[in-house]
Amino acid sequence: MAVKLVQVDISQPLPSINGLGGYSSVSILVMDKHEPLGYLHLPLTAEAISQDELAAHIDARFGKKSHRQEIDESPTDNVFVSVLIPTKDRPESLRRTFDSLAGQDYPYFEIMVVDNNPSTDETRKVVEEYNHRYVLEMRPGCSWARNTAIREARGEIIAFLDDDMIVDPHWLSATVRAFHDTRVMCVTGNVLPAELETEAQELFEFGYGGYSNGFEPLICGPGTTWQSRFYGLYHDLGFVMAFRKSVFDAVGLYDVALGAGTIIGGGEDVDIIHRIVRNGFTVAYAHDALIFHYHRPDMDSLKRQLSGYGRGYIALLTKCMICEPDIRMGLLRRACGYYVNAIIKRVIMRIFGRGKLPIKFIAAEGIGALQGPIAYLISRKRVQRAERSLDLETSVILNR
Fold first, then answer.
1. Cα dist. 158→140, 187, 236, 240, 245 in Å?
2. Whether residue 217 has pLDDT greater than 80
């Protein structure tokens, strides 16, 4: 059965929670003003939770008061931000994203959509309806779209969103605040589920682990070893990212051989974080920059997604083995360790009744991982052919 998602703020009078019929459980995101404290997961035995019951559960989980440090709520710098949304044939989903961006409490930003090799002009019509900037990028692949967006962005900070996301009103303020540390060149956000209405969505969130990396800030910089960065913090940092635009002059743009729209289907986000840290810069995880993601609703889509994750991860390691010989043997050991720990051990645990993710989904990720090395080499050759045959300025820019 589905899981009901609710958000409450302990700085305000607590509500009663109604309309729980048909749900097996409820996940309550507990906030203290703009500060997310965490989730309260409750099984359901009735169709409502009273104010008193809710207060008792919150007190038991988080205590009477938050013991966190006060967040600096002073106004952020008036830095201009470009919110960049690569998309392909999802005009109605874009409307949802646009509507959530309209409620931001940070006023200094633009929205630009990069329409990636569309099959219709419906996306352009929606963007024009909302009076946002529109860019047409005909080279298929999310990394092509991201790179075009970076070149055309007007902001000092650029923040990427996917077209299946909505954002908290405080998202941009929290993101910009994280850049107050001058060492930080990239900020990632806290990605939470927008709904858990299907079995596939619930499996991804609770069986696979979802996208959130917790409710504490993280910093990843040159002070940690490459091993702990690459295989620990990189994945903890998340994948919805904002950058100082200037960092791309130092580290380059996204690798167009990786990412959605290629035969690999992923890996470009971890790759860009790796290059930023490898070049001596710092990446921050802003736990209070909340983004809500609509997970894949059906099992077939989830299976393809996990296969792409495995393929993308090992494809990225293959790239690093080729390009960074000084850490090649360590990368090879880590690739083997990933397969043992992420695939084989999870299958064994599932056989013995531990873990929620079915074996067929673990196997899909494992098969994808085996395809990673050859997939990267094929994708790289395709890019080289495309770069020889295409003018790199073939994007058509509209609504400047």
1. 22, 10, 21, 11, 6
2. yes
